[in-house]
C-alpha cells in the first residue's frame, strides 16, 4: 500500500462496564478512521493539537493526518482513546508497513503510548484489541465471550461529560465492603461472559465505586439505565464517565429496547467489535 492508500479503522469503546472501574472495557461497532496524506471529502484534516496527531507524532509519524468519525465527543464512547489508537497505529504502519499489527511488540508499543496519553489503559485497549478486555498494571487480556449480544447506547442530546471533572468528584477512598462488593461483581461478570450466563449479568454489573455518584449528578441518565433494565436488558451501565448509558441484550429485542428508552436522546443499536484496530483501504 502507498501512504495515501490506507487508513486505520478503530472501534469506539465503552469503559468501566459497571463495576469494572478503570479495569473493563468493550469495543463497539462504531468506527473512526485515521489516515495519512490528503483528507478524503468526508474526512477532516487535523492539526498537531488533535489527540490523533499527538499520538501519531509521539511514535514518529510524519506528514499530514486526517480523521473521519461518527463517534461523539465527550459522551463516554471513547472518542479520544479511539483516535489516539488510530494515530499511533498510523505511525507504526507508516514506519513498519501494514503488517505492523501482527507484531506483538508493536502492538504493545501502541498500547503503552496511548495509555500514557489517555491516562488509563481501559480507555484505549478495547479500541486496539477489540472484544471485551480486562486491564491491570499494563497487562491486557481478552474476556472470553460465549454470546454475541446487541449493545444499545442511549446518548442524551446536548449533554457532554468531562472525564477529568467527573473523576475529580469521586471519593479518594471507599469502604472495604464496597471494594469487596465490586470485586465480586467483576469476577461474576467475567464468569458470566465466559459461560454464556446472561441471566447473571444484571447483578454482575452493579457498582458501588463510581456509578452512584455520577448517576446522582445526572438523574436523566439514571432514569435511562432503569428503563433499559425494565425493558429487558441483560445489563446496563454508565458508559465511561457518561452521559451515555449502554445496555446489553438479546439482538432480537434491541430495537424494541431502544424504543423504550427516554425520548430526550438518540439511540444506536451496536454490537461488540471483535477486530479492534485494523488497516483498511481509504
Describe this structure in words.
The protein has 282 residues and is of the alpha+beta class. It has two domains: 6-143 and 273-281, Ribosomal Protein S5, domain 2 (2-Layer Sandwich); 150-270, GHMP kinase, C-terminal domain (Alpha-Beta Plaits), CATH 3.30.70.890. It has helices at residues 51-58, 79-96, 104-118, 125-129, 163-168, 176-195, 201-204, 211-217, 219-230, 254-259; strands at 6-15, 24-36, 44-45, 65-68, 132-136, 139-142, 150-156, 235-238, 245-249, 265-271, 278-281. Strands 1, 2, 3, 4, 5, 6 and 11 form a seven-stranded antiparallel β-sheet that branches. The chain has a four-stranded antiparallel β-sheet with strand order 8-9-7-10. A hairpin with an 8-residue loop joins strand 1 and strand 2 (24-36). It is globular, with a radius of gyration of 18 Å.
Amino acid at each position: 500500500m502507498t501512504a495515501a492508500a490506507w487508513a486505520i479503522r478503530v472501534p469506539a469503546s465503552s469503559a468501566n462496564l459497571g463495576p469494572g472501574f478503570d479495569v473493563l472495557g468493550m469495543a463497539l461497532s462504531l468506527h473512526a478512521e485515521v489516515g495519512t496524506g490528503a483528507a478524503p471529502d468526508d474526512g477532516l484534516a487535523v492539526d498537531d493539537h488533535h489527540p490523533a496527531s499527538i499520538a501519531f507524532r509521539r511514535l514518529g509519524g510524519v506528514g499530514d493526518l486526517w480523521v473521519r468519525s461518527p463517534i461523539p465527543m465527550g459522551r463516554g464512547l471513547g472518542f479520544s482513546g479511539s483516535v489516539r489508537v488510530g494515530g499511533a497505529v498510523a505511525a507504526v504502519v507508516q514506519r513498519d508497513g501494514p503488517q505492523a499489527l501482527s507484531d506483538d511488540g508493536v502492538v504493545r508499543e501502541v498500547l503503552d503510548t496511548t495509555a500514557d496519553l489517555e491516562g488509563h489503559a481501559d480507555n484505549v485497549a478495547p479500541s486496539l484489541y477489540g472484544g471485551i478486555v480486562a486491564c491491570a498494571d499494563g497487562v491486557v487480556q481478552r474476556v472470553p465471550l460465549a454470546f454475541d449480544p446487541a449493545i444499545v447506547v442511549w446518548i442524551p442530546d446536548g449533554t457532554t461529560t468531562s472525564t477529568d471533572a467527573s473523576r475529580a468528584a469521586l471519593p479518594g477512598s471507599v469502604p472495604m465492603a464496597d471494594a469487596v462488593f465490586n470485586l465480586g461483581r467483576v469476577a461474576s461478570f467475567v464468569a458470566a461472559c465466559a459461560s454464556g450466563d446472561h441471566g447473571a449479568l444484571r447483578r454482575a454489573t452493579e457498582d458501588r465505586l463510581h456509578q452512584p455518584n455520577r448517576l446522582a449528578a445526572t438523574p436523566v441518565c439514571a432514569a435511562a439505565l432503569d428503563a433499559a433494565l425494565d425493558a429487558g436488558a441483560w445489563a446496563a451501565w454508565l458508559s465511561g464517565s457518561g452521559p451515555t448509558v449502554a445496555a446489553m441484550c438479546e439482538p432480537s429485542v434491541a430495537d424494541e429496547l431502544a424504543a423504550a428508552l427516554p425520548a430526550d436522546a438518540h439511540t444506536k443499536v451496536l454490537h461488540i467489535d471483535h477486530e479492534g484496530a485494523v488497516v483498511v483501504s481509504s
